[in-house]
Amino acid sequence: FGNYKEATRGNPNYFLTYGNGKAAARVQDHLRPNGAHRWHNYMKTPNEIKLEEAAVLHYTYTKFSDLTSRRDRCGCKPTKDDVKRCFMLDFDRAAFIIASTATEEEMLQW
After folding, report:
1. Where, by residue number, does the polypeptide cross the bilayer (predicted)?
2. Three-state DSSP class for 108?
3. Which domain-ending residue is among 40, 58, 76?
4. How many domains are there within the chain?
5. Could you report the per-residue pLDDT of 42-97, keeping only the tens digit for each?
């Protein structure tokens, strides 16, 4: 984050994107998602800044109910092989198995 202030020009709402291209953006009029990796603005071309030092913290399950509701929506069996049908990320696979097989206390500890 050594160049963060310079890149954002002091604007705390400037957007950053992380390595695989997912983008975050500053909320503004006429801005809309343009696929999973870009943004589009009907009135002007969005400014893009790329920083090697940037980091995005992604919290998939911010509440206990996020974990249990995702479990309740999936029809996969809680096995290492079957969860591959439903989840791409190893972390999500492990979370689904825990949510499907553990007690509430074990899930909270996990």
Report:
1. none
2. helix
3. 58
4. 2
5. 999 888 877 777 666 667 777 888 888 888 888 889 999 999 888 878 888 899 99
